[in-house]
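hiii so my PI (J.) wants the whole complex modelled not just the main chain, which honestly fair. so below is everything: two entries, each one labled with what it is. i double checked the lines twice but i was tired so who knows lol
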Amino acid sequence: MSTLFLRTLREDPSDAEVPSHRLLVRGGYIRRAAPGGFTWLPLGWSVYRNVENIVREEMDRAGFQEVHFPALLPREPYEATGRWADYGDNLFRLKDRRGNDFLLAPTHEEMFTLLVKDLYSSYKDLPLSIYQIQTKYRDEARPRAGLLRGREFSMKDSYSFDIDQEGLQRSYDAHREAYQRTFDRLGLPYVIVSAVSGAMGGSASEEFLAPLEVGEDTFVRCSDMVCGYAANTEAVQVRAPGVASTDGVPNAHVEDTPNTPSITALVSLLNHEPGLRRSDRDWVAGDTLKNVIVRLRYPDGTTQALAVGLPGDREVDMKRLEAQVSPAEVEPFGDEDFAKHPSLVKGYIGPGVLGVHGTSGVRYLVDPRVAAGSRWVTGANEHGKHIVDLVCGRDFTPDGNIEAAEVHAGDPCPQCGSALEIARGIEIGHIFQLGRKYAEALGLSVLDQNGKQVVVTMGSYGIGVSRAVAAIAETCYDDKGLCWPREVAPADVHVVIAGKDEALIAAAESLCANLHNEGVRVLLDDRAGVSPGVKFNDAELIGVPTIVVVGRGVATGTVEVKDRKTGVKQDVSLAGAVPHLVALCR
Amino acid sequence: MSTLFLRTLREDPSDAEVPSHRLLVRGGYIRRAAPGGFTWLPLGWSVYRNVENIVREEMDRAGFQEVHFPALLPREPYEATGRWADYGDNLFRLKDRRGNDFLLAPTHEEMFTLLVKDLYSSYKDLPLSIYQIQTKYRDEARPRAGLLRGREFSMKDSYSFDIDQEGLQRSYDAHREAYQRTFDRLGLPYVIVSAVSGAMGGSASEEFLAPLEVGEDTFVRCSDMVCGYAANTEAVQVRAPGVASTDGVPNAHVEDTPNTPSITALVSLLNHEPGLRRSDRDWVAGDTLKNVIVRLRYPDGTTQALAVGLPGDREVDMKRLEAQVSPAEVEPFGDEDFAKHPSLVKGYIGPGVLGVHGTSGVRYLVDPRVAAGSRWVTGANEHGKHIVDLVCGRDFTPDGNIEAAEVHAGDPCPQCGSALEIARGIEIGHIFQLGRKYAEALGLSVLDQNGKQVVVTMGSYGIGVSRAVAAIAETCYDDKGLCWPREVAPADVHVVIAGKDEALIAAAESLCANLHNEGVRVLLDDRAGVSPGVKFNDAELIGVPTIVVVGRGVATGTVEVKDRKTGVKQDVSLAGAVPHLVALCR
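here's the output for the full assembly
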């Protein structure tokens, strides 16, 4: 440490929002270099490389083959699949000196597809899984949380190529298993959740989430462990109720509903006016049908209004909505938009004017709970009026369904009906069944056993390598600093020289040399003029799993061995220290 | 090889100009992905990683510490040092979604300087040498020769930080030695030549050139091995002759020189007209003073005329000229330029009108051979007339010297006067003494022993890692294919199953398993339905150093072991094959 390129900080960096960012900067692992871009210092790069190597070893073990593509790519292949436009502002685009369009690749589906097309032509060549570990670029609107969401980051992306869906399922399962082994070795806890595939296209897809409060992803999990359902909230499919009977439901009737600025006030009015009450039970907020209008902006710049109908006890979940309408972006429906649609009466919008065939012409998609036979109170498209006993299917027909309503803790599990739990997580891996979208767009087909051209079926699989470093840091730290799992730690043992005595320094150096010869990775704090207290604090902050203090005990032939995570200390004889530590490290 | 992602090609790719490009594509190592961008296939990536690991090991061994920067960087630091402009069209520039300027870094001087400034503040922290191995970007006008000159490539760049010039010299020497060890291990022959530093700034600098005909660099070497002088032609410093006596040289006289469209014709006229002849010897082409006008274009877009005076037996060497005027670019001086300078008479330009104080106002720099006292025939600034016996220093005074004349084989060595040899090479490494340029521009200083702020002295050192792969390929191939040095080869042993017999296949597989257990890296050609002939050809093309043929010999208990490079074959007993091959590989 007397020569290591390192400065630890006592103070938290002012821009750090999450513990991993704070501690990786304070511990001298990373340093901000650009908005959303970080420099790895020697300790950090060592952890990064340990993580990268584990990922590589597990990919290789699964029989996937490593290749490496450029990051700077021509526009054409991404144009062919539509992603040049679909990625919108998230793509870094540039021109070369001749004015040709290039991009910095966010992922490489197109290039992998073209490469396999270039080399392979027969079903005999398949299955194939190839991967790379590479720097990726995404022009994030809000780079944040240090390594968790940057604009330049390292990713392992794999792609599988199969002759049919059964083959894809096998490749998908092989990646799923390899990912489980990888995250197990990284010491990263994870939940596998169903996901939507977003801009990637494709069908089945699952995410590996590290369940952490700082995560940007929200997921649900069934409280019944036997059921095992888990999904990103964006991917939750609300179970639609069965078709209810409308026998005995009065005809819909428009009513004055003065002074009902909130749903609570409206429900209260409904339950207190005899003519409005339900015969079977009280009205509740979930019986009101709220219609929210948004503007969708498509990558080509065109916009379209969309009405989302959902029970009044829920808000629209913007991430769920965005996942459904991607690559379009969701924008607020402003006063100028209302002005263009005079039939939409703000605060009183009802199905009467909605739908592509309605007066407004605004597309109308509803939550699955707004099912045939369900009975609602909703806006009557006139100021101060609501329509009561409006029955879906009898009195109005939406254009379709959309999963855009908030998911609440306690909602029924779509699989078994038990209560759902909600938690947050960091996406550390994602596996997709892409299907034939990319192969079709780019003309990747092979001859099958009957000599017929068959479009290849693909999968795409990613692990955020730099993000994994931060996720690991998030899972193992305390108020003193980081606590790395041994396999990714920058060293196995952190030896602190706690004193100036020459015998003590000699003992420490000899211990380090012997450990080194045994293949133990050692970090030696041999800084002169730094107090033992500062050295101890730095050791706790840096977070090597085993700390050895070579101090006063040397006089009586002992050193102190401390477990960074548990804090348990043990005096070990100097003579026995090497075998003791070697055993700890294996 | 039955599952390896590989296709070898019989035909040369149409766009390949050099052997390494041709063979790396044919052997299934790389594939073109973009203009100046290549994809590494599994075999190629394995070679690349071997090379990268050797580079890393040698840097670590020398005590340099590895870090890692983003490639996508903000404009500001490069603006501070002037490189944002100086790099001209060679820099990939882009804007993020907020319109901020970014670049894809060609090298990282600025960022390393700022990082050290961020962390360090005292002379006690120095010396420091840190490095990274990273993807670099340069918008080459003419990407060519495969991996030798791409727009996206991998480079190891190191930077040293010292308190003074003596420290820098030690750091520089340490890098020089580390580079020698690195290239020795890579099996790359090299010559260390003096170089100019170009856009990097700084003073002393040397290049490591692999002496190969396909190289873009031309260098000179003294024919006297004891002298040892070697320099990139751009860096050759012509030895100026001593001041000659002008006693007895007639006064300059203007003469009609009709019908002398060439220098040969002019010299012939001079030697045949009695009034023009020299008394001491015949005129030769080297006595004529040729004045070439060019236009310099500076990064800010401004232009300036420059006159280069040089002996008439030499042309201007554009690369030498460009190296002198960098970051300005050299453009032809066209008719419209001549129109703006009526005193310049095309074909008859002489010193009489040149120089910043001359009629033309055009800056006039001359070859060092145009020294004080040297006697010339040159243009008289009138059509059809030359001026004879014009003596430098007596009759005209240039604005200064410039090294822009072609270097010829046989020219005197600037160090010892022996004849120079000329050869071509590929730049595989470059070491610079940067000095204080970057530290000054970015404010990197530390407190010295006396508590005084001292600007840090820097060095910068690069190895082209991806280029080294191609350079190695260029140094070891034959008409059958590649011949890798063992340490970088994708495998140690290439085992060919030459037959369909089950016993033979079993013998080969068992041999491979045993070799693998001994730590020998094996490539097994187990492709079904591929003839032994095709397999042999592929083995020669791929170029693993040892080829083992498991064929008919198995019946009598032998396999054939062939050295790829020498072609020497040897029958080895199956039983003794493993120890024999293990010995070969160590």
